[in-house]
């Protein structure tokens, strides 16, 4: 058995420095590593390249790091909820690599699986394909996409055990399992931390072999980007 528990978010982020590439799980504001992002903001680490499906909102998620100009480049898919992101991108302050959502997910998964590149039809004929190799399979053009990896991957899970085995809940099982595979050091914050052997192996989504550090998060706001309800 290997105990991967660290006592705090401060300990979990030891070794994160300027100019690193980070992966951050989540879909919108669902399943984002809130504690880790808050600690990154507190540390003031600069010139980060962040790989994330989205960029949070102006005052939450990765929006906290954009507000303090800690991110120099975003590699992402859907960024339409963040006005500060838009401002920095249009002004040239922020370098942006926009990727089709499925391609982003597969590039992360490929990075964790040791696959250097793959062909996909997504993005052919658009700016996404500029400068990329094209091959035809079954009469259809495909572009070559390379795998993504990161110095650190920050992941949010519902349950985890002391060996780093993880279970995600509902929509939070999005980019988190893929990014957990692709970080050189994967840090996980969980809502519930249980002893090794307590999780049913049949329900584990990410095995502990991909995780280096795990801790119990102190606070989760779990904000909703757009709340839509029926009229009374």
TrEMBL record:
Keywords: Transferase. The keyword Manganese does not apply. The keyword Glycoprotein does not apply. It holds the Pfam family CoA_trans. GO terms for molecular function: CoA-transferase activity. InterPro entries: 3-oxoacid_CoA-transf_A, CoA_trans_fam_I, CoA_transf_BS, NagB/RpiA_transferase-like. PROSITE patterns: COA_TRANSF_1 (PS01273). Gene3D superfamilies: Glutaconate Coenzyme A-transferase (3.40.1080.10). SMART domains: CoA_trans. Signal peptide: none annotated. NCBIfam families: pcaI_scoA_fam. Belongs to the 3-oxoacid CoA-transferase subunit A family. This is Succinyl-CoA--3-ketoacid-CoA transferase.
